[in-house]
Amino acid sequence: MVLTQSLPSAATEYGAAQRQEIAAALFEVNRLWSSGMTDDFDGSFRAIDRELIAVLDLAQRRVVAGAVEYVPEVLAETNPAALRAAPDYRLWAESLVGTTGSGLATDSLVYEPVIHAKVAVAQGQSTAAALESARRWLGTAAGTLLSDTGRTAERVTASGRGVTTFVRMLQPPSCGRCVILAGRRTRRETAFQRHPGCDCRNIPSAESVADDLTVNPREYLDSLDDKALRKALGSQSNARAYRDGADPAQLVNAYRKSGGVRPAQVYGRNVKYTTEGTTRRGLANWRMRQAEYIRSGGESKNGGRYRALRAPRLMPESIYQIAESAQDTQRLLRLYGWVL
What we know:
This protein has helices at about 10-35, 40-80, 105-120, 125-160, 175-180, 215-220, 225-235, 235-245, 250-255, 285-290, 290-295, 315-320, 325-335, and strands at about 165-170, 185, 200-205, 260-265, 270-275, 315. It is mainly α. Strands 2-1-3 form a 3-stranded antiparallel sheet.
């Protein structure tokens, strides 16, 4: 059974209710797109665009209403002092309807998949494949829109009561990037970074109880079965490395930059490596400096604090391929900074 954070009951119930609202809206969006779009991209879109926007507008209203109701309920558990006086201001719900988190109109958002489909066809994809790819894009974008709406409603409603501390909340199943950030505290002026499709939320709380809402990433990952662990950490080899003691933050962060994991040929072997953690202040840089391998590999010519090693930092997948024994595996995992 997957471990969840020790969260206020109001937060748990709210998270489940909001996921249901968003899932219902996405079901309808997918239905409209799949049944209404044809090879006449613009013509068929004009026949369904008003319905698509109506679905998203209604979902945004429902998400906002849920958030406004939720905030005082969770504050009763996490920060009762914030409820002792009337709020300084209240959210105007309609201000969040019809716009995205970046301030664009929703009708611009729902037309984007049409553009994606046109580009895909121009690049040689079939109409069916292009429409399916565009449908997936729309689903992700619509889910992000509704999650953004909920987050904004929560933050504005809580801020109206003077709340300044928020704690990041997992909504399992969660990806590795979210897991290693679970429990992080932010101020109301700071929105936590997220990726497309991320459904983590910030729980309003008092400074004095924020530490009680944190979660140990290892406890969460240890509760996953092999398939879920592989998905969370990016590969079977990463999951195996984690079981062998690798730091999950190191494994996840290897992928945080575009092209962060790359193929190469070293001493006649095909390997995968990352540049993450190889700057002067990185753990891998420090560990690799201690080895003869680094003294022969040297550093880049770029000066300053971000000077990186020329020698590649092998990914766990390549370590398992070249290691000659379990002891050698542990040595290499430690050498390249995967095991603390």
